[in-house]
Amino acid sequence: MSLPPGFLDELRNRLSLTQVVGRKVTWDMRKSNQAKGDMWAPCPFHQEKSASFHVDDRKGFYYCFGCHAKGDAISFVKETENVGFMEAVEILAREAGMPMPARDPRAAEVADRRSKLAEVMEAAVQHYRLMLRSGSGAVARDYLVRRRLPEAAQDRWHIGWAPDSRTGLLQALGAKGIAPELVVEAGLAIKPDDGGAPYDRFRGRVIFPIRDGRGRAISLGGRSLDPNARAKYLNGPETALFDKGRNLFNIGPAREAAGKGLPLVVAEGYMDVIALSEAGFRGAVAPLGTAVTEDQLRLMWRIHDEPVIALDGDAAGLRAALRVIDLALPMLEAGKGLRFAVMPGGMDPDDLIKAEGAGAFQRVLEGAQPMVRLLWQRETEGQVFDSPERRAALDKRLRAALARIADPSIRAHYGTEMKRLREDLFGTGVRAPRGFVPRHWQQKVKAAPMPSTRASMLAGSGEAVEERLREAVVLSVLALHPDLVETFDTALERMECTDPAHGQLRTALLRAAQAADPRGTLSAMAGPELETLRALPHVQIVPAVRNPEDAVMARLCLAEEFAKLEARRTARREIAEGVEEVGEGSTPSDEGLTWRLGQAAEAVNRAGRAQNEDSSDLGEDRAAMSGYLQSLIDGQVWVKKRH
């Protein structure tokens, strides 16, 4: 439905964001200023102990300096309650005492229909719970006793029993005035295609209610006790209430547990989740009869930064783990990952807990491996790499996997770990030497420094010093113009600081930019560090520092420095990959390596092109590096020379 103009503004004005957020967090009163509405707390979206979650009541926005979650009261309710936009607005409107505007008739009809289906579903849950305590439920109770699930736990999970009756549920709900059409629409009954009378979907099955994040019953799962049944587990179909690819079993309690610092554990089935939760691992969830989907992964990451996939130790469990890896690779973000805990001896979590207790599962959980290790295992396990061709095939597969990672920083870290694992496997030093120009290439080609480079204050200082100085320029200019942090926040967050002090200053800048008085906040957080930075001669001669009132010059300076940092690091990566190909003993084509080095040179050229080469510019170093790369290309350094 559409909302009238001004409704959301009025809603936000009536509400205190601190009050809305305060229901989910514990404020750090030493760091907060309640009088100014400047509040800090541990973030409710990811597991942490420090107060990095900032709420600015006057602006009506929150921001986490750890996971970078940000938004207003509506987005906060959406994320923490796992509801849609309109549901979040309705929740806040009730709190603010504002009546919701009249809804579109069609939208109102859909919402009312969903409410009726939820009522039907809850009535079915209660009916099946009664059946579990009836005489016909003895077989189900015996099964649950064998699974070591006591009556108190059965009540906590609202477990029920569907007798082997064709119309038992339809008759029971009909007696309560619920029409058969609603029972069919809720997915609880099936209407034959030939127009015959509907019949119950669940028969002769132990019933597990499936609830959404708000605790509403939206579907059922049933476990057959007949060993000859075509399907051991049966879930309800897709309905207006239930989208199995967008929900997780036990999502509400697991989200609450994860918010209290417990791990989010992803198991395969209902009984695994129940066993884990009853053993103290209350942050347990499971997909609903399907392989993990993209939407379910996003839902997990909203709850916890690093869910643990606890899969069965059999072949099927490992295949499921590998499917999750392929799904997750393109979705990885900084701070959002997966770990994998593989059960021993082909067990599932329920088996392990029953056999060896909760401590055994805790040990498996503590030994969970990061996703990069499982990816490496998939590509190498059971294979022999006794020839250059086989090693080259491995490299090709690894490059293809890494290419699927969209985030450049994560892709680089995965590449580094893969190189380390490769060295361990082959027992040879194939890692590219550190530094912009590989040492063994320096022995082959020695380009003389250009006169402009010899005159530079950076001559002989090396690439690391240059990058440190560029970072110093960026941080100094942003400190003078904190209003530009928002413009360059993505580049600033991705900047690979070569100095730990620079990393601390970057964090201070990001935090200060969210405060009511950015300059004052920054001075309080990092005043001495900034003075040290500004004392550097190279920083003092930068025009944007000499003319702090010129915001346009500052913006251009930042754009240039960020571009040059990224170009230099991109060039280094390209050359390192070329070195790796040469160092592996393979025979890369002249054209391929020529292209790679050319791309590296062009990356540096692009960063400096059309810049004014005054005394504060680093264009002379860009020209020197570009010329040096070109000399490598002209000299065909990859060709083995005859002596």
Ranges with pLDDT <50 over ≥5 residues? 428-461, 583-590, 607-626, 636-643
The first-to-last residue Cα distance is 79 Å
* Helix-strand category: alpha+beta
Q: Sheet with the most strands?
A: 5 strands, mixed
- Beta percentage is 5-15%
Rg computed from alpha carbons, rounded to a whole number of angstroms: 31 Å
Shape: globular
For the largest sheet, list the strands in their spatial order.
Answer: 12-11-13-14-15
Query: Tally the helices: what do you get?
Result: 29
Count structural domains.
4
Mean pLDDT: 81
Range of helix content: 40-55%
How many strand segments? Answer: 15
InterPro entries: DNA_primase_core_N_sf, DNA_primase_DnaG, DNA_primase_Znf_CHC2, DnaG_bac, DNAG_N, DnaG_primase, TOPRIM_DnaG_bac, TOPRIM_dom
Family: Belongs to the DnaG primase family.
Subunit structure: Monomer. Interacts with DnaB.
GO cellular component, one term: primosome complex
What does this structure look like?
This protein has 643 residues and is of the alpha+beta class. 52% of the residues lie in helices and 8% in strands. The chain has 29 helices and 15 strands. A five-stranded mixed beta sheet has the order 12-11-13-14-15, sandwiched between helices. Helix 11 (270-278) runs parallel beside helix 14 (349-356). The longest helix is centred in the last third of the chain and has 33 residues, at 551-583. It is globular. The protein starts with 6 loop residues before the first helix and ends in a 9-residue tail after the last helix. This is DNA primase.
